[in-house]
Amino acid sequence: MRPLSAAVGLLLVSLLAAGCSIPSWVPLVGKSKPDPNAKQVAKAPEPAPVAPAAPPLLGTKHESLVSLDGVLDRVICVVNNDAITLYELEEAEAQYLYESKEHPPEGLERKALREKLLNVMVENRIQLQQAEKEKIVIEEGEMNDNLGEVMKKVNAKNPKEFEDILKANGLTLEGVRKRLREQLMVERVKRRKVNLRISVTEAEIDRYLSENRQKLETGLSFEARHILFLPEPGKGEDGWTEARRRTEHVYALLLEGRDFSELAKEYSQDGSGKDGGHLGKVKRGELSPDIEEAILRLQVGESSAPFRSQVGYHLFHLDGKETMAGEALVQARNQIRDILYRQKYEARLSEWLSEIKQKAIIDVRL
Fold first, then answer.
1. What's the rounded Cα separation, in Å, for the pair 349 and 86?
2. Entry pTM
3. What is the topology classification, in CATH, of domain 1-19+51-193?
4. Better pLDDT: 232 or 12
5. Would you say the CATH fold of 218-321 matches that of 1-19+51-193?
6. Taking the domain 218-321, which CATH number applies?
7. pLDDT grade, residue 72 (50/70/90)?
8. Which of 156, 193, 303, 331 would give a disulfide with 151, using CB separation of 3.0 to 4.6 Å?
9. Residue-wise DSSP of 249-296
């Protein structure tokens, strides 16, 4: 049986190490399908996800006291009554370096990495112990369903071919099933202790929407016109004063009811003047912030008073703008719900892990 390609091998490692269940922070509510015709709303800024190192594929409790070459392994940490061995840590380190594509660190950097990986392994072991204490059982049907998903991911057509793929990559079906069962147990206990104890209210979504509306609206478009008056070169502030005087003259004509497009054709010193000052369909964030802010302060159909930029004096007219409404607003609220849920999930998970770690007897011998 040929070995897996690097890409498929990494997929297998990731699936088996992380389990096949839905990520534990995902809300327990369904999500509506995105409408392909809906206006695109910029995603709100998310906290950078932390990618913990996955636990080793093979070996938990005391089963790894002998390494692959038959040499007695060294216990580097005891979590309650469970041992974590040096072999398991080295396996986790190798997996981390393979997935991250990082150059193997040396000296103090390697020591810090191994301490970080060991901490993740301790947390995983404690969570598994909690699942056992809660008497969580993974039925064979669920196990087979998840294993079937892994088989599909690695393009195994049948169980025999799947076993051959595992064997070619130094794994056993028994070991893979054990790691997968343990991961499913951990996900189940986290759902009980974390997921089911948090929720996001509509009031919280409203508050986030109000505080971050400008960022969320980045990417929505608007249509506007402008008339530009340039200061005469070499005249310094006198040139700017003259440009303002001409701008105020045209602004007075606008107040008398003259058409903005016709005035742009007659007076604008920008190339868009021949098109009635039309700037086209502009996405938010494409213009300089001061000009965009001056335009978007207007109501649709409204013209601005004279506005000075670094280029010259402007008169703006807002023809139309997209807003977060209808499907776009629904999409934005769903994004916010997910962001707030994840923030609460990470906070509750950290709190729960601290609680169970304080109660655990952890003896580190690294």
1. 27
2. 0.59
3. Triger factor/SurA peptide-binding fold (1.10.4030)
4. 232
5. no
6. 3.10.50.40
7. low
8. 156
9. HHHHHHHTT--HHHHHHHH--SGGGGGTTEEEEEETTSS-HHHHHHHH
